[in-house]
Design brief:
The protein is about 40% helix and about 15% strand. It is an alpha/beta fold. It has a domain at about 5-190 and about 225-250 and about 285-310: 3-Layer(aba) Sandwich (Rossmann fold), CATH 3.40.50.720. A 7-stranded parallel beta sheet has the order 3-2-1-4-5-6-11, sandwiched between helices. The protein has a two-stranded parallel sheet with strand order 7-10. It has a two-stranded parallel ribbon with strand order 8-13.
Length: about 350
């Protein structure tokens, strides 16, 4: 029988790439998505087929990480071998506007999932999507699995809580539960509200004369940026280990938002300084100026290496947004092209 995986947040950036990876490994994949008034499955439409058709291996279920009863029911029905918990309110700036909601979804959502697993009687291997934002006001550079946490946002604080709950369930109940402390990872599938995709989308629109200015916050903030496609491979490798553990996943390079701008605008022959302006609305109450990860443990124990460079990432994102804009202008993409057949 095929290995069964359950993914929360399957319709997000990481969830879509992870789904592709697992299907390539002949998994049966189940995903939890929230019911919404608009279609929200655009990132996985190319993978989905009618579950009643022969050979279907991707199944979607309505649910929410704030609904513990529903999570328990799904765990009992699906009986997965592996659970990848990716769902969260994951936008750092938004977490300052919605700290309570962020704590409920990003923090307590992990506890609900762990409790649902414990109550189901199943013993799936569990992956928790932890974040470099837990390091916050960093105590050392580069950051490793032993670097103390000092979060600088409600999002980071909620992720610290979720991290330690995962460790506690591993120690108290013998869960095969691992934390992946992932540093910033982007892709053409990144939500346009995040700064990297906001930049590449703006580059495509400015190139076509559809946008005049791009408004941003702190350009000097530095991050360790990788490609999500590389990082989901690390998630899978963690779950395959005989013993659970916690791993930093990072490239070991740091680049500023300003450098991202230079690469993105230069790729289309434009000078970023002609189009970018600072807007105080996009500055955070407290900001993390530098994150740089040391993934030596992941390299040694998992055999993981990033395959795509920072330049590869930026170029791929700009090119994808240019193609998307061209398809939209030509009428290739319509509302129904982003929707999967109704299920449930």
């Amino acid at each position: 029988m095929a290995t069964k995986a359950l993914i929360t947040g399957i319709n997000g950036q990481d969830g879509s790439y992870l789904t592709e990876l697992l299907l390539e490994q002949d998994y049966e994949v189940h995903g939890i998505i929230r019911r919404a008034s608009t279609f929200n499955t655009g990132r996985i439409n190319h993978l989905y087929q009618d579950p009643h058709e022969s050979g279907a291996r991707l199944f979607l279920h309505y649910g929410d990480i704030t609904d513990s009863t529903n999570l328990g029911r799904l765990l009992n029905e699906i009986a997965p071998d592996e659970v990848y918990h990716l769902a969260a309110q994951s936008h750092v700036r938004v977490s300052f506007d919605q700290p309570e909601y962020t704590g409920d979804t990003t923090g307590l959502g992990t506890t609900r999932m762990l409790e649902a697993i414990r109550g189901s009687g199943a013993k799936p291997r569990f992956y928790q999507a932890s974040s470099s934002e837990m390091f916050g006001a960093v105590r050392e550079t580069p950051q490793t699995e032993l670097t103390p946490f000092c979060p600088q946002s409600p999002y980071g604080a909620a992720k610290v809580y979720a991290y330690w709950m995962t460790v506690n369930y591993r120690d108290a109940y013998g869960f095969h539960a691992s934390n992946g402390i992932l540093f910033n990872h982007e892709s053409p599938r990144r939500d346009p509200r995040f700064v990297t995709r906001k930049i590449t989308r703006a580059v495509a629109h400015i190139r076509e004369g559809l946008q005049d200015k791009l408004y941003l916050g702190n350009l000097d903030s530095k991050r360790d940026w990788g490609h999500a496609q590389d990082y989901v491979r690390a998630m899978w490798l963690m779950v395959q280990q005989d013993e659970p553990d916690d791993y930093v996943v990072a490239t070991g390079e740091t680049h500023s938002v300003r450098e991202f701008l230079v690469h993105a605008f230069t790729h289309v022959g434009l000078n970023w300084e002609d189009y970018v302006e600072i807007d105080p609305r996009y500055l955070r109450p407290t900001d993390v100026n530098l994150l740089l990860g040391d993934a030596s443990k992941a390299r040694e124990k998992l055999g993981w290496e990033p395959e795509l460079t920072f330049a590869d990432l930026v170029t791929a994102m700009v090119d994808a947004d240019i193609r998307l804009l061209e398809e939209q202008k030509s009428g290739i993409l319509g509302p129904e092209s982003r929707a999967v057949r109704e299920f449930g």
